[in-house]
Batch of 4 targets.
Target 1
Amino acid sequence: MTATPLLAPVQLGGLALRNRIVMAPMTRNRAGPGDVPGELSVDYYAARADAGMIITEGTQPSRHGKGYARTPGLYTREQLAGWRRVTDAVHARGGTIVLQMMHCGRIASHHNKDADARTVAPSVLRASGRMFTDTAGLVEFDTPEELSIEGIRATIGEYAQSGRAAQLAGFDGVELHAASGYLPMQFLSTGTNHRMDAYGGALTHRLRFVVEVLEALSEVWGAGQVGLRICPGNPFNDLRDENPVETYEALLRTVAPLNLAYLHVIRSPDATLDAFALAQACFAGPRVLNDGFDFASGNAAVAGGAAAAVSFARAFIANPDLVERFEGGWPLAPFDRKTLYTPGADGYTSYPRHAR
Ligand SMILES: Cc1cc2nc3c(=O)[nH]c(=O)nc-3n(C[C@H](O)[C@H](O)[C@H](O)COP(=O)(O)O)c2cc1C
């Protein structure tokens, strides 16, 4: 390893990273009609290709998985072609890019979705809270339909199908978003999963959906190309779990034989547990740690063995050249909150590189 741990290359399963500075997934709501990533997204990701690995914004594997306005999908020919231009541009600059697969489940509004799309969840429990829509402003979350067993199988099939599309689109791998209160986490957690069948009730049943999705993606990709993102104990999006330590210890021990490329762990200030310690105790493979790191604390996490790599989200928004800025000890530019999720180039591709 070089004197600067974050700048050293690393292998995460089958993914070769030229440094350990990972761009964390960020929803930026810039997809065009048909939820297709367009030219702006090509420029946005290409400008950040110096990262050891880019994890894309959460991308719905089917129309049912969409929750928010203007998020991209990967289940149509047009979406595949759009993503192909993104991955080509990142690869042309020597980068590595994986697709984050995000099925929002009940954290959705029909105002943001196609007319024939459904809002589904493990149980018929509406999340309290509201979300932004382009057509109706702030609205309550949908009341979800309970997925039948056939519906669960179909949903797992959608992940697999979208995983295949990700291969055709030239991605280097995929990451399952099982954090932030979306569908996989809804299955894992006692507050959102009131089922009493093979996918709910007993702890092993609550784990089943996530395990089966990971198995399906591993079949498509090989597990060395599949990552998993978790945030144990995070109450975000009206999520509650009676015993998150037990849930996530069991989950990580259950997925261990798959030999996934990496585990991406977010620590949440709102959680009552130590997510990093839990991950270190229960997941022997490469760990990518997230939330609130800077260059110094990221280097310390790698040097101390807690992390194989560290991911940065907000720092990448206004600093497309984050890796160079870290290397040069240059100041980081602040980002503008108002343009985080608005359409267009402003606040997306408008942030300049540091003057040399
Ligand atoms: C604008 C924005 C959008 C985000 N969208 C996603 C997302 O699509 N998927 C995801 O897993 N996390 C998402 N996150 C969470 C980040 O990946 C990350 O966990 C969080 O910002 C903490 O990392 P940081 O301290 O480096 O910013 C988002 C965060 C921000 C600021």
Note: The longest strand covers residues 53-59.
Target 2
Amino acid sequence: MYISLQHLEVKPVRFKVEVPAGEIDYDVSVTQASQLNAEGTAQLLSRSLGEIRLEGKLDVTMDALCDRCLESASIPVNRSFDLVYMPAEESRSGEVEIDQAAIEVGFYEGSGLELNDVLREVVLLSLPMQVVCSEACKGMCPSCGENRNLHDCGCQPQPLDDRWSKLKNFRTEDSPRN
Ligand SMILES: [Zn+2]
Ligand SMILES: [Zn+2]
């Protein structure tokens, strides 16, 4: 759905969309696992500055790889958003002042906003820094690479001081003149 300045100049635009998985291209590490539902309102805050405010909420389930075991992990995203978009040219003039720190600000090019681009951004900003399939995930074995949630490979943990003892040997071999 394209939200054009032309429409916003007449009246606020209400949106309610159901975006099927596959329509929005996120990036290689996350995929949309369910339909994305979003609804809200877009309005022109300032006609002269071209500031567009988008308020709404969305819910979707995303799939990402667990940081510990690299299996797929399900991430439910359910949040409201309140964003202000300004024309990209305004940002270059350096005279933009944002009073409301709570509101996130983005920029748009041309004569309006593609709603899917906004939703993509909101989803990506909502993803946790660390993705885990479950808090109890045991991760991969650093020795054999086995997923320890599925099998107990029985590897002994690596001694922690291994690299330091190697370094010590290297030093003694390499510095006979001292
Ligand atoms: Zn995991
Ligand atoms: Zn192992």
Note: The two ends are 74 Å apart (CA to CA).
Target 3
Amino acid sequence: MGILHKLATGLIKTLPPEAAHNAALRALSLGLGPKHSCDHNVLKTELAGLSLPNPIGLAAGFDKDAQVPDAMLAAGFGFVECGSVTPLPQAGNPKPRLFRLPEDQAVINRMGFNNKGLDNFAKNLKSQKSKSGIVGANLGANKDSTDRAADYMTGLAAVWGLADYFTINVSSPNTPGLRDLQGGEALEDLLGRISEARQNLTGDQPSPPIFLKVAPDLDFAQIERITEQARTYGMSGIIISNTTIARPAHLKSAHKTETGGLSGQPLMRPSTRILAEFYAASAGHIPLIGVGGIASGRDAYVKIRAGASAVQLYSALVYKGPSLAAEICDDLAARLKADGFTNVSEAVGTVEP
Ligand SMILES: Cc1cc2nc3c(=O)[nH]c(=O)nc-3n(C[C@H](O)[C@H](O)[C@H](O)COP(=O)(O)O)c2cc1C
């Protein structure tokens, strides 16, 4: 299995990015993915009531149609977020729409929520989720929807009972106008409707956590407003962050001028700065999930110390393959112990090392 996995990973890297991604999904669904347990007591933690074996999650976008959550849990991830899924299937933007920036260890994508829709997503979750770990559903809105806020309610209703948590993604830069839902009255209206839908769906059962996923391109006034509204409407946590529309001057790769969201190494610093600002704004009252540029145990540790209760990653997998989750776990556990922490939660929001 080890050799097969290495061979498959090597071959996949020679393909154009989107074909490589589809080949990786196929290999994973055939059971060719790595198998790692990530068993460190110091990493076991709680996130908004979810018990995680470790705080390293797979970010949304890798498994948009919930084809391989179990394979990614088996690779060592502590939780897996599938999606974004929209109510109706949609093709996304014309190809090419996914670009590697190898010199920058980065990716630019303008996929545009290509996915097979909620019915297929719910069917996949039902048939293949073996209760082997925590699987979340990241919800988006259709490009042509006339009431985008309503699409999130449709998503909640369709997947309720099938996912361990939900993420409301209002921060993709590739659906024009979507990120306007992060602002003032639009956000208040959306969160109000989510809170109502949640009450109706929950009845007297405990509700699964619902997270809000935000962009990194926000100023402190926006961060304060989002934090306050998220708390007011009972959101369970904030995921920080999605890809950025910014293009740092230091990018070197040929594809650096492509339109879309930038992720990977160049996003590490800005997304961690925004995470720290959310932590300051929330004073630790709402759990934060740190995403953006994580490629090592050290990166994960920096996010945790900046205020993240858990982290997620995607782009680094493009360069390092799915075994990275277990590598990060081992390194993070060693760093926590070396600094005298007995549990990852003790390190959340402490001064950056
Ligand atoms: C190809 C690609 C597709 C993505 N699709 C989604 C998506 O559908 N929904 C979402 O919330 N985030 C999506 N993301 C954003 C990631 O979940 C993550 O927030 C971002 O890439 C930063 O993390 P990273 O630097 O570890 O990749 C996507 C990212 C990439 C690279």
Note: The two ends are 38 Å apart (CA to CA).
Target 4
Amino acid sequence: MSGFDPHNPDRWQRVVGDVVGEVRGEVRGEREGPTLVCVGGVHGNEPAGVLASARVVERLAASPGVLRGRFLALTGNLRALRRGDPALRYQARDLNRAFTDEAIADAQGAPPHARDPEQAEVAELVTELVGLLDGAGFPAGSALLDLHTFSSPGAPFAYVEDSLPARRLGLALGLPLIVGLDEELRGLLADYATNRLGLPSLVVEAGLHEDPGAVAVHESAVWVTLETLGMIGDADALAGFDARALLRGRAGRQAGRFYDIRHREPEGDPPVEMLDRARAFTRVWKGLTPVAVRAHADGRRRVLRAAADGILFMPNRQQRKLPADDAYFILRPIWRRFVGVSGWLRQRAWAHRLLAALPGVRPDPDRPHTLLVDHDVAALMARDILHLFGYRVVRSGPSPYRRWPTRAVMAVWVLGRALLRVGGVLPTGRDEIWVVRRHRLDVEGFPRPENSR
Ligand SMILES: [Zn+2]
């Protein structure tokens, strides 16, 4: 891997490296430890993750006997990376929204010559990943790392689906950790890895696309994750530097913070332009803080204000944008002690029985670990309480963000109506029901080693 030249198109290969642990000179089977699958460059203008995983591969290959398990580093959007265009995120469609069941089936069903570039990528990546599954699945403790960079200045951060095993990986990095994107976005590689392959997934956003320091952030994240999974003994010894200190230093004041997604704003048509002052991880207020401008075809320019109270996140400053892309997100800061309480609570059976017994909430008779929630009760809980208990929204109606005082007034009305529904006085329409479900990895936990053979 030495002499890795990002400007030479032939340098980009699907498999960056595949290191299988050895002990006392004998090659251990991959079943002897977890597998960490590391994907970089899912977006064509984000080579940092591939460069970082290449460094890790090189160090591991030169250090026989230190790895327990298997480290497999893959490249995401190979065709876009090979174009070498720093503005080219994708060619036909966003590869990191293309991992839905339908999009995968479309890509696999199309004859190879009829696939668009990202369909070809999806088909190849799925084949590669599914090929790793033999029999019952991945060895216990396996995981997937998805390495990205971003377009708007701000601290590096990590994102996970809110399951306990994934949280553990995310919190170990010390970067600000965000949960809840899986409720807002479909077709993420990380979602696919979790829901179809059973792998807890950790997404790391290391810095600006053009920041050479992003490679070191990614490299640190890979070393720390290998250590957290018990695949190596000492991350710093292998990295040659203090990996956790590097991550904390780059995160600055955001180090160790925890956030839930409160709101996602789509670009719309025509896509908006974020204002200079709309910076990642700054405080915004609903209806007050100007965040973007939409320039209409007839010359009108409309200033858009924040759609919720919270912390502005991932303002989109990509060079090319489509109406369905994300304009920005708004985060809800979560107190770290609350994170611990939530983790404890969601492992208690009585807590789930209690939640299901609230007025307006009932267990789904057909699906385990799933609740049906009346729309107005759900709007009142505003997801916060559902998230605390480890439930994510599977299907919901529109529910605009409301401040606490408004919700307090609503509570009287809403609980009254819910009680009347329980009593059968008021009917409940199917479209007025939210479906919420516990995270699959919380219910199943890590697969046991004996089951994974
Ligand atoms: Zn990306």
Note: Residues 42-43, 46, 148 surround zinc ion (CB under 6 Å).
